[in-house]
Amino acid sequence: MGRYQSITAAGAGAVYTIELHQPPLNIIDIAMMEEMQAALHEADADPNMRVILFRGAGPKAGPKAFSAGVSIQDHTPDRIVQMIRCFHGIFRRLARTEKVTVAVVHGHCLGGGFELAAMCDLVVAAEDAQFGQPEIKLGQLAPVGVILLPYLIGYRKAAELLLTGTTLSAAQAHALGLVNRIAPPKQLQERTDELLRELLEQSPTALRLTKTILRRVGGLDFERALAESEEFFLQTLAKTEDAKEGVFAFLEKRAPQWRNR
């Protein structure tokens, strides 16, 4: 994987691909977050790159997961501040980039993995993909999900996903507008290549400027909202006994004992 240990990242033509490379579940830990930020910086600095594409590593028959989320070990009290600041650094970079961002999703797309896909401009998913924000089951919340999901799919459905931790099939996610195109797993690459061809046929200047104004007039001040959500998560939720209990219960492989404080 060259200079990276947790991801692979390289440009080919006008497409810069970042592959989360910790199979089978491609869990996102702090080390991966730091490498993703470095890769995004590299992609942004290359004027020849017009598209940034995210995918999860796995066997040729189909990865088990795009990403099953952020490392629970990095949610412990001694790591959580560093983890959140580092993870959100990825989203701040994505909020500022003029490149078109695409997520190619196969298998589990949960927690922080779902947030990463939701942040992208376009999503192509295999029919067996599953999307969800299960953080509530660990006494946590999804700081990026609480911003993006109401914006993308409306308050009611976002509330259901965030408050129950339920998962969506690829078909359900497509119906809600979270996914642009779905395909049988064996045809996922073909459908992705079709979308990339459509994007790269366009004027590079028009593609960049349309992406820029589309984000600007969309009505979401993402970075302001992220700052508020991040502060609330770290200063309010993360300090509760239930948030800590949820993390340690998961790590100790037992049912959580909620204390309502």
Weakly predicted, low-confidence segments? none
Overall, the morphology is: globular
Which strand order do you get reading across the main beta sheet? Answer: 1-2-3-5-7-10
Q: How far is the first residue's CA from the last residue's CA?
A: 44 Å
| Helical residue percent band | 40-55%
Record field, number of beta strands: 10
What is the CATH domain class?
Answer: Alpha Beta
The biggest sheet, with number of strands, parallel, antiparallel or mixed sense and barrel status, is: 6 strands, mixed
- Helix/strand order, N-terminal first: EEHEEHEEHEEHHEHEHHHH
Task: Decide which structural class fits the backbone.
Answer: alpha/beta
CATH topology: 2-enoyl-CoA Hydratase, Chain A, domain 1
Radius of gyration: 18 Å
- Beta-strand content estimate: 15-25%
When the domains are counted, the total is 1
Individual helix count: 10
What is the overall pLDDT average? 96
Which descriptors would you attach to this protein?
globular, 46% helix, six-stranded mixed beta sheet, 261 residues, four-stranded mixed beta sheet
Describe this structure in words.
- The protein is an alpha/beta fold and 261 residues long.
- It has one domain (1-185, 218-261): 2-enoyl-CoA Hydratase, Chain A, domain 1 (Alpha-Beta Complex), CATH 3.90.226.
- The protein is 46% helix and 17% strand.
- Helix 4 packs antiparallel against helix 5.
- The relative contact order is 0.13.
- The model has no long low-confidence stretch (mean pLDDT 96).
